Amino acid sequence: MIGILGGGQLGRMTAVAAARLGYDCHIFCPDKDSPASRVAAATTVAAYDDEQALRRFAGSVDAVTLEFENIPAETAALLAEFRPLRPGWRVLETTQDRASEKRFTAAAGLGTAPWAPVDGPQALAAALDRLGRPALLKSRRLGYDGKGQVRIDAGDHPAAAWAAMGAAGGGAILEGMVDFACEVSVIVARGANGTTACFDTVENRHAAGILDVTVAPARIDAGIADSARAAAVTLAEAFGLVGLLAVEMFVTRDGRVLVNEMAPRPHNSGHWTIDGCAVSQFEQLVRAVAGLPLGDPSRHSDAVMKNLIGDAADGWPALVAEPGLAVHLYGKRETRPGRKMGHVTRLYPRGAGANGWASRGGDRPPPQEE
User: Fold this and answer.
1) What is the pLDDT of residues 352-363, one digit of tens each?
2) Stretch (H or E) spanning 42
3) How far apart are CA 233 and CA 109, in angstroms?
C-alpha cells in the first residue's frame, strides 16, 4: 500500500500507474471528494496537521509519497518517523521556500536568475535599485501557477507591488528579468539505490502564469538539452532524493541554462510521458517509492501536450472524437477559471513530430492552434 499526500490530479494519475503494477494507494487529504480518492483503494479525509489521523494513516501504508508540495514540513517529518517518505521531508522543506531553493541551487554549483530576499517595501525598493526594472516579486511560499507574483515595471511603487503580492509575514524574493530564448523543464527520477533516469528536456509555454503547452522534445540544441538534464541530476543527487524531481529552467539567448524552480513530485510538464513513453513519470515515481528498478524513460514518440484550463474542458465531446488525440480528464466536479481540468496529447513519429512540424509546417498543427 502506497500512501499519497494530496488528492489532486497528480495523485489520481499516480494511483492509476500504481494499479498497473499491482499496488494499492491510500490518499490523505482534507477534501471529501478528491479526484485521487475516486481511483484509490482508501482515503483518509483529515487536515494535514491532524496528528492522530496521520499516525493511523502511517500504520495503514508501507511507504509515503506526495503529489502536492504545500504540505507542512512537520507533517512529512512526522510520517517519516514511521514509514519511508519519498522524497524526504527536508527536500519538501527546501522546495517550499523560494529563497531556500535558490540557495540550495547555488550550493549545488548551478546558476539562477539574479535575486534578492525581501521582507517589506523598504527592502524591496533597495533590491530594485540593485537588480533594476522590470523585475518579478514572488512570495517565498505557496506560489504556483502564477499566484503570489507581481511584475514591477518602471514607475511602479514598491509598496503597491508588495501589497498586490499579498506575502503577509512570509517574506518574498525579487528576481531580475532574464533574457531567455525559451523555458524548459526536466523530470528526473532517483531510486533508493542511487540510480537516476531522466526524461527528455521539454519546452514549456505559459499563458497567464499557467503552463499552457509542452513540446517534447524541446526544440533546442542537443548540447543545451543535455546540460539541462545534467542540472536536474545534480540537484536530485544533492538532495539525496528518492522519487521524482521536476526542474524548470530558462535557456538564455547565449545558451546558458539557469534553474528557475523545482518540485519534488510529478509535474504538469511531464504529462506527455503517459502517452509518449513506455514508462510515464507517474509509474517512475511508483517504482522509486516501492524500491523497484527505474524504468526506461526514453520516448517512443514526439509529443505536444496542451492543458485544458477552466471551461476549455467543456469541449471534451469534440476532443474525444478527434482521431489521434489522447484526452485525459481529471474528474473535477467544478469548473473554475484558471483551474486545470484535464490535458490532451498528440503524438508524432519520433524525430518528425514537434520538431518536424516546426521545421516544415506539417499537415496538422499542434493542439494549441486547433
Assistant:
1) 755 544 433 333
2) strand 42-45
3) 12
